Amino acid sequence: MSQLLDLLNELKHNGVVVLPECITNEELVKMQKSFQSQLERPAFNSWTGYTQTDRKRLMVEQLLTLDRCFCKLPLMPLINNLIVEYLGKDICLQEAKGWQSLPFKDNFHPLHRDEWYCTEYYQSKTIPRSLKLGCYLDDVESGAFAFVVGSHRHQYQGQVGELYHQQTEDYELTKVVGKAGTLFLFDPECLHQQSYPNLTARNALFYHFFSPSIVLSKNFTQWGRFQRLLIESSFLSGLNYQQLAFLGCARQPCNDIPDIQHFLSLTQPLNIAVRSLNEAHYLFEKIKARLFRT
Ligand SMILES: O=C(O)CCC(=O)C(=O)O
């Protein structure tokens, strides 16, 4: 109990807390292998794989479809209890993704507060809170997660997004360096970034927890950054009601039709390109069958 309270107090005070070792070596290896398998190729047509929306990160979406270990991680009692104590009982997992950060020398991913809730809606209301769980899959010495201690402790909205705090020299950054398997919780209202330079590719997981009742930012939903959480159903077997609820199964069903605005003008040419490729593949197979008919 006192460990939970100590960690909770540190999280409340600093905005970030590094957790004690929770993952076994066997689980870590499974997660590393499964994550790596998604980095072999980009998601395309019927291939699953990584997606890429910026220059230096290969995103692995929907971790809970990949391996049971990714499902078990947020359910570990210490993690689960800390999140519920910090955010309240109606909280659940909303995103489970990770990324490989490719090496970079510049301030590629500058200091920011996450843009996820609708800032206009909450203009004169209490700022909604969320938590992220970070997990390194590699030993991290450079390119570590970095944050400004205590910068989440403000009552009124700070500026969200990456445009406002580019002069990193103005801030004292604390870095979370650590071995593969290092776990940390942070309040994304705390100023944070991936520090630079990042000398080697870094694989890391980021789970995001918040209440289903929160009104989300349109940038978050319509630009495809927020995706509905998918789970491989066999990973749910044996979980109790509380665990299922924590993974989001107790939410009101979401009836919104996804309305992604990303590169709208490219939709038609991209559809044509993919269909042409499939036609070409079909023709190729047909010619091959004719030529090699016995
Ligand atoms: O990749 C990192 O270390 C930074 C993570 C981050 O900025 C985020 O999850 O919002």
UniProtKB/TrEMBL annotation:
Gene Ontology molecular-function annotations: 2-oxoglutarate-dependent dioxygenase activity; iron ion binding
Annotated signal sequence range: none
Required cofactor names: Fe(2+)
Transmembrane parts of this sequence: none
Taxonomy, superkingdom: Bacteria
Name of the protein this chain belongs to: Phytanoyl-CoA dioxygenase
Native organism: Photobacterium angustum (strain S14 / CCUG 15956) (Vibrio sp. (strain S14 / CCUG 15956))
